[in-house]
Prior knowledge:
Layout lengths: L1 H19 L2 E5 L2 E4 H12 L9 H20 L6 H15 L6 H17 L5 E10 L6 H19 L5 H8 L6 E4 L5 H7 L11 E3 L2 E11 L4 H16 L3 H13 L3 E2 L1 H10 L5 E5 L2 E4 H10 L4 H19 L1 H4 L1 H25 L6 H10 L10 E9 L2 H12 L6 H8 L7 E8 L5 H6 L14 E9 L9 H22 L3 E3 L1 H4 L6
Antiparallel strand pairs: 1-2, 1-13, 3-4, 3-6, 5-6, 7-8, 8-9, 10-11, 10-12
Amino acid sequence: xxxxxxxxxxxxxxxxxxxxxxxxxxxxxxxxxxxxxxxxxxxxxxxxxxxxxxxxxxxxxxxxxxxxxxxxxxxxxxxxxxxxxxxxxxxxxxxxxxxxxxxxxxxxxxxxxxxxxxxxxxxxxxxxxxxxxxxxxxxxxxxxxxxxxxxxxxxxxxxxxxxxxxxxxxxxxxxxxxxxxxxxxxxxxxxxxxxxxxxxxxxxxxxxxxxxxxxxxxxxxxxxxxxxxxxxxxxxxxxxxxxxxxxxxxxxxxxxxxxxxxxxxxxxxxxxxxxxxxxxxxxxxxxxxxxxxxxxxxxxxxxxxxxxxxxxxxxxxxxxxxxxxxxxxxxxxxxxxxxxxxxxxxxxxxxxxxxxxxxxxxxxxxxxxxxxxxxxxxxxxxxxxxxxxxxxxxxxxxxxxxxxxxxxxxxxxxxxxxxxxxxxxxxxxxxxxxxxxxxxxxxxxxxxxxxxxxxxxxxxxxxxxxxxxxxxxxxxxxxxxxxxxxxxxxxxxxxxxxxxxxxxxxxxxxxx
Length: 512
């Protein structure tokens, strides 16, 4: 009876969901829900500087977009290692904001900031120190010897018998000065330096890293909270393993996913350091001692901290696996990024990589659409020759008349400028305003002054109404040819596909 009721309620739930988010279109048998279309439609129409599209116009664009993505999937572009790694990297980055309680995290950071402002740890302190590193396994003899030496250095500094900077250079394991902010260095270090004034030198003191004599060089006031908030959270995490916002979220998720510890397994693990028993359940799944052992190998700490870390990681990993189900906006962003990657890759292969090297195709397109590229005003195609003497200018012009245009510059360089530069020349296609000498002589507009070293100017070329070769309008042509290839590609995709639009659901877009 219970299973029958479960099926009935499940069917009712699916029916309600289908009514809330109905199928808007079906492309090659794949359903597209209204929510996905609305998300992209509203997002793109909200972008400033983008031409606003009507609903029907955007439906066409959306269908073309989905057909291109489907073509990329058919080629297996979504299965490559590079694609999967980039998508997973984006997912990890996006998930960060979903795996912490932002309110609690900001409140904790604010409390730390207020403490920093209220005591001497506000701002930053730049320090230099005489530092001797001491390993955790240091013998008592090494500790005594190092401490005695540092005491002697401190006495010499106090009596003016030693220079601090010289001691840093000669004795310290750390030579460079550095800035210290709260929660950046060990507490013992910060307790000392934040009480000191610029120019003051500390007595020798120990930290977990070794023994120090510190000199404060300068101090800076604390920055505004918004400028340091993220850094405070990062330092809290480094020092304590997890920030307050994440800890708060974990506690909420434990309740949501019915985290249930197993006392027998927990007690055995804490007593013996290992167990084969169940430790806890989460979301209906059992987490065992063997799973903990695998975690512990990668996190060498005390057993209590290891267990706490394992529980937190398990909770966060479970939440990470459910983000698409739990948060529609997360699912939409992931879908958008995934489809965008596929669109870029397939467009690159079908269009963008092809255009620069398809000389035959561009030439054929230009011949067919030549009239589209006629100019409103004529251009000058040729060369402007500036020469040291009028005689040389005539010789240059006579020589170039007998040669193809592509050989003109080499002929000038080898014949007239080999030993001494006698000619300066500009060759190309010139519109009004491109070259003052062309404007003067050819277009009869602006008056040009002669070049002092090459005062005689002559021309070889002609005025033309439109380009003679596609190379002369290559930049403009490339964009048009790209659009032409895309139109043909979309037409092929459309012809090979079945697209069904639910017009009744389309009428409800943004109206439900």
